[in-house]
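Why do we care about 3D structure at all? Because function follows from shape, and shape follows, mostly, from sequence. That is the central idea of this module. The next example makes it concrete: a single protein chain, its amino acid sequence, and then its structure expressed as tokens.
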Amino acid sequence: MGVGKTTVGQALKIELEQCVFLDGDWCWDMHPFQVTPETKALVLDNICAVLNNYIQCPAFKNIIFCWVMHEQRIIDEILSRIKTESCKVVKISLICTEKALEKRLEKDIAAGLRQPDVIGRSLSYLPLYSRLDTVKIDVSDKNADQVVKEIKEKSDARQKNRRE
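And the structure:
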């Protein structure tokens, strides 16, 4: 939360051809906000359904999906439910230092975009990302364009390595 997933995803969408972007948070856009076993299942079902629909649509060559996925089981659950046989899946975690994260979140709080309790929750997730089977990109001192460039480079390098 607050590391820049949505900003980077939107910028990357413009850089890639025939691209669509899904932010998992959109599936949680409800009032009142309720985290229950039923809403968790519904959100996951909706995310997987939308991703599968995008995969099956020939209009798209690139699909960007972002969401707070701080546990490997979340990534594995989504991947087990989408049809990736014809896809190259690149799993990337955007990470940053505690100081950078606090600064970003405090700016969002001051702008009225987030509640103050987000800082503690977000900071508690930071150490969990080291355990994930993902490419890590430290965004602490980078703007969205720099991160997009790095994502494209790392994605291309992973594809090259798979061919060799």
